[in-house]
């Protein structure tokens, strides 16, 4: 009898706690709604709305998570995903304010496993003058015509080497092929490492390192994070050796040659202070590795997804082939090498790249933390909150792009120029953190597409895009290739 009574008392107590907690949560939400915090729900205790968020990443419409909440609560709403309460903006004007106020009001925010792997002085995490300095140096170098002239030959070589191995009827995995091509280019622009053992080492260890970017933040031997941190140590050792050798070589010669890679750029800079402070060698080595993170996966995915969309759009592919064949004919007739400007001057090819960037949303948004209370367009965002400026919601919004789910490169022709001033198209972010690799990425993809469509036809096997944790083709996009001459 006593036991039964105790049982019901316990049940009653748990019920009362649950009801109290729910009431408190409701009151909190009401209070926040009154104070202007965007509407929305924080979902279940602890997990919030994470399961719905992840589930949408495995559907063909990952934007459905955002759309559902947008229709219930408005363009800016609150939620609770991946372990934290968050305010999500699907509004281009709000995104613009978030991107343009980096450092002063908004600072980058990443999940714990990523911050552990990045290190405090990574360009991806730091703020203030040092971020501006490094961003300016790297961006200036990547945009420079001198680099583009040189890197065009490197990209062509890497593309040729990959494509020369393709035989008639071969099944090639686009995601793998493009990853091999772009990794070579990446390590060349960052640290001038060419094909060989060092390149293989970097590829292997970097692969191990980035596996830990999305994992449980537990740093014990045997855990994913631990293994990734160990891989970073090995990478650092090698990059540090390259940086130190380069520094010694620079000091032993009087005349400074052209800047060949990001290491040169960071080593040579003496800053604008009177005492000419050079950047420390450890800082340079760490940042070289960390700069590989945004570049390593995004460019091959852009190439792969372009091939995927083109496989499903014969009209777009036909026009792309015609435009590129015409350039090839001209170059062959003149007996000239391609200049980087040749590749970039093909308008339809650039439209294909824009449309792929819009639909693929390789970086679907950026995460920030708010340093002080701010009101944007009537939405109150309190200090300390996490904010997600969602690019995918803007890129896949019918108000901005008609028939959003249709791969339509011609829409960019109809839109005319001026796309970069418009915060309705931000695949490379914006403001002070606008991707410094923007032009380099577009050049790489233009060269790859040119050689692919002027030398091969292909038939893609069935595959589909997965959007979580990052954008990937489920089967790495297998395609049967046929050289055009045959
Ligand atoms: C399709 C290719 C690429 C896409 C879509 C892309 C996208 C982006 C985006 C959205 C950001 C802004 C992040 C933020 O605001 O927090 C960014 C930053 C950055 N990207 Fe890229 N990226 C690409 C290629 C590259 C490449 C090839 C490199 C390097 C070689 C690179 C290096 C960087 C760096 C260093 C930053 C950080 C800049 C800073 O915080 O100051 N990206 N990228």
From TrEMBL:
Pathway noted in the entry: Hormone biosynthesis; Plant hormone biosynthesis; brassinosteroid biosynthesis; Steroid biosynthesis
List, in alphabetical order, the Gene Ontology terms for molecular function in this entry.
heme binding; iron ion binding; oxidoreductase activity, acting on paired donors, with incorporation or reduction of molecular oxygen, NAD(P)H as one donor, and incorporation of one atom of oxygen
Q: Which cofactor does it need?
A: heme
InterPro entries assigned: Cyt_P450 (IPR001128), Cyt_P450_CS (IPR017972), Cyt_P450_E_grp-IV (IPR002403), Cyt_P450_sf (IPR036396)
Which keywords are on file for this protein?
Heme, Iron, Membrane, Metal-binding, Monooxygenase, Oxidoreductase, Transmembrane, Transmembrane helix
**Topology class, membrane:** Single-pass membrane protein
The GO annotation for biological process reads: brassinosteroid biosynthetic process; leaf development; petal development; stamen development
User: Which residues take part in binding heme?
Assistant: 435
Family affiliation: Belongs to the cytochrome P450 family.
Subcellular location, record wording: Membrane
Pfam name, any one:
p450
A GO cellular component term found in this entry reads:
membrane
What is the name listed in the Swiss-Prot or TrEMBL entry for this protein? 3-epi-6-deoxocathasterone 23-monooxygenase
Q: Which domain of life is it from?
A: Eukaryota
Return the PROSITE patterns for the record: CYTOCHROME_P450 (PS00086)
Recite the lineage of the species.
Eukaryota, Viridiplantae, Streptophyta, Embryophyta, Tracheophyta
Organism this protein belongs to: Nelumbo nucifera
User: Gene3D superfamilies, alphabetically?
Assistant: Cytochrome P450 (1.10.630.10)
């Amino acid at each position: 009898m006593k036991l039964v009574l105790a049982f019901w008392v316990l049940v009653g107590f748990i019920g009362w706690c649950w009801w109290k907690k729910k009431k408190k949560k409701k009151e909190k939400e009401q209070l926040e709604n009154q104070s202007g915090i965007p509407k929305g729900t924080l979902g279940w205790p602890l997990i919030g709305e994470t399961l719905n968020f992840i589930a949408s990443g495995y559907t063909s419409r990952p934007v459905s998570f955002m759309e559902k909440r947008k229709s219930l609560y408005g363009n800016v709403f609150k939620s609770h995903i991946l372990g934290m309460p968050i305010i999500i903006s699907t509004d281009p004007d709000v995104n613009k304010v978030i991107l343009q106020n980096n450092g002063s009001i908004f600072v980058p925010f990443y999940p714990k496993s990523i911050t552990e792997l990045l290190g405090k002085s990574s360009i991806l995490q730091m703020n203030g003058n040092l971020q501006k300095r490094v961003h300016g140096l790297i961006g200036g170098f990547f945009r420079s015509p001198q680099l583009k002239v040189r890197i065009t030959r490197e990209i062509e070589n890497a593309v040729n080497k990959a494509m020369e191995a393709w035989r008639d009827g071969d099944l090639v995995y686009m995601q793998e092929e493009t990853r091999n091509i772009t990794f070579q280019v990446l390590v060349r622009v960052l640290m001038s490492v060419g094909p060989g053992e060092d390149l293989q080492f970097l590829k292997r260890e970097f692969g191990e390192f980035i596996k830990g970017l999305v994992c449980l933040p537990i740093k014990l031997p045997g855990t994913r994070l631990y293994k990734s941190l160990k891989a970073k140590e090995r990478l650092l050792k090698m990059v540090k050796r390259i940086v130190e050798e380069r520094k010694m070589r620079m000091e032993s010669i009087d005349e400074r040659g052209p800047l060949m890679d990001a290491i040169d750029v960071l080593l040579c800079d003496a800053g604008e202070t009177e005492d000419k402070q050079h950047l420390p060698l450890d800082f340079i080595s760490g940042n070289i590795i960390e700069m590989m993170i945004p570049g390593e996966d995004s460019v091959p995915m852009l190439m792969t997804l372009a091939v995927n969309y083109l496989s499903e759009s014969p009209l777009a592919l036909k026009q792309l082939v015609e435009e590129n064949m015409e350039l090839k004919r001209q170059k062959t007739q003149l007996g000239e090498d391609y200049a980087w400007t040749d590749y970039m001057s093909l308008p339809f090819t650039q439209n294909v790249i824009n449309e792929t960037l819009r639909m693929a949303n390789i970086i679907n948004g950026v995460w920030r933390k708010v340093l002080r209370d701010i009101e944007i367009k009537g939405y109150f965002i309190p200090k300390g909150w996490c904010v997600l400026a969602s690019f995918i919601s803007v890129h896949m919004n019918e108000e901005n792009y008609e028939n959003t789910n249709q791969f339509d490169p011609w829409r960019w022709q109809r839109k005319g120029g001026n796309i970069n001033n418009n915060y309705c198209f931000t695949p490379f972010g914006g403001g002070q953190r606008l991707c410094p690799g923007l032009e380099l990425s577009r050049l790489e993809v233009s060269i790859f597409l040119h050689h692919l469509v002027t030398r091969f036809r292909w038939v893609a096997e069935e595959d589909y895009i997965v959007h979580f944790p990052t954008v990937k083709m489920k089967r790495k996009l297998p395609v049967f290739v046929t050289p055009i001459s045959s």
